[in-house]
Specification:
Its main location: membrane. Keywords: G-protein coupled receptor, Membrane, Receptor, Transducer, Transmembrane, Transmembrane helix. Belongs to the G-protein coupled receptor 1 family. This is G-protein coupled receptors family 1 profile domain-containing protein. It is a single chain. This protein has 364 residues and is mostly helical. It has one domain: Rhodopsin 7-helix transmembrane proteins (Rhopdopsin 7-helix transmembrane proteins), CATH 1.20.1070.10. Strands 1-2 form a two-stranded antiparallel ribbon. It is globular.
């Protein structure tokens, strides 16, 4: 496969800002190897699962008005759209790699900056991260500060939060990669920094914005939510045992609905906690790898290691795991999926016509 050239001592294709560090001598051309073909197979498989799975999630959420109206579902819808687009761009950049052209025109410049850098792919990956943080914050306020959530949160503000995740992603990618991309000698070159200090600062800022700060927020919020729910359960149990029998019988009349609502809320929190845990597990390997590259701990030879290949596959796999989590853990989604499946199955069954004996036609 012919592709663009990598000039060692420049940066190329980092997961945090579209660039990664290499150090060495002369430019080399990327060639297709058996390992490349294996990686392509992984990418095609991951992207196919991601597209199919997230489309199913969107069908379920858009088909059921009760789920669609919830604030949490708005963030989950955006998460599924972003993950589906991530899978789509992963598939497209895998089957349509850079074509080895000589870069001369404005169209070539756009192709270099937009497609060779995989700009839309990293944009969606970063948006997925920011949306997960926004979703977690919304649930955190709902559980830990319910009065504030009731007064301050509404659908318009939730949509503004969703729009902000896209704005942050566009801003991060434009500022983190575009200034370091240019065309020289007919080649698309990326990650040219004025000094090592600029390169280091870029790496640290990117690492913090796309990984360290998000996972810190996730861990803190879910830790506080778990503590709040545990404390609430303990308090409820204590109050229940101290109530008189008559009062308890009166209170029991309103229990079924409130218990179902509380159970559904806990199930959502548990589901999103699993989603966040998988996000951390899938992304940590690659983020730390590139952080060490930026620090100079690893050089370009690290990109030929199996660990690097594993870290890339794990990172991309994050776009296809959430639908499986919803199907296995999210009870409301499971019920919605069953309803839609039964609706489709019933619609596909032809109604049978039964003739009465008097209407039967016989022939001799």
């Amino acid at each position: 496969m012919s592709s663009f050239t990598i000039d060692y001592d420049i940066m190329l294709a980092n997961t945090t800002n579209g660039t990664s560090t290499f150090s060495g001598s002369a430019p080399v051309e990327i060639s297709t190897t058996i390992k490349d073909k294996i990686m392509k197979g992984f990418y095609v498989g991951i992207s196919s699962l991601g597209i199919f799975g997230n489309i199913i999630v969107l069908i379920v959420l858009f088909s059921l008005a009760k789920m669609r109206k919830k604030l949490t579902s708005l963030f989950i819808i955006n998460q599924s759209i972003v993950d589906a687009l991530t899978a789509l761009f992963l598939l497209l950049t895998t089957v349509l790699p850079p074509d080895g052209r000589v870069y001369k025109s404005l169209a070539d410049d756009f192709y270099c900056r937009f497609w060779v850098t995989r700009f839309p792919l990293w944009l969606c990956i970063h948006c997925s991260t920011y949306n997960l943080v926004a979703l977690t914050i919304e649930r955190y306020v709902s559980v830990v500060h319910p009065v504030v959530h009731k007064l301050a949160f509404n659908r318009v503000k939730a949509m503004l939060m969703v729009a902000t995740t896209w704005l942050l992603s566009v801003t991060h990618n434009l500022s983190g990669s575009m200034p370091y991309v240019y065309i020289a000698g007919g080649l698309c070159k990326m990650g040219i920094y004025n000094s090592k200090s600029v390169k280091l600062a870029n790496g640290i800022v990117g690492f913090c914005l796309i990984y360290l700060i998000p996972i810190t927020i996730l861990i803190y919020c879910y830790g506080r939510m778990a503590y709040a729910l545990t404390t609430k359960n303990t308090s409820t149990a204590t109050n229940a045992t101290s109530c008189s029998t008559g009062v308890q019988q009166s209170a029991n009349k309103s229990k079924p609905h409130s218990n179902m609502k509380a159970r559904a809320g806990k199930n959502v929190i548990k589901t999103l906690m699993i989603v966040s845990t998988l996000f951390i597990l899938c992304n940590s390997w690659n983020q730390w790898f590139f952080f060490f590259i930026k620090l100079g701990v690893f050089d370009y030879r690290a990109f030929s290691t199996s660990f690097y290949q594993f870290s890339v596959v794990a990172m991309f796999a994050n776009c296809c795991v959430n639908p499986f989590v919803y199907a296995a853990q999210y009870e409301e989604f499971q019920n919605g999926l069953r309803k839609i499946f039964c609706r489709w199955r019933n619609a596909s069954v032809e109604p049978s016509v039964t003739l009465s004996p008097s209407a039967a036609i016989t022939t001799n």
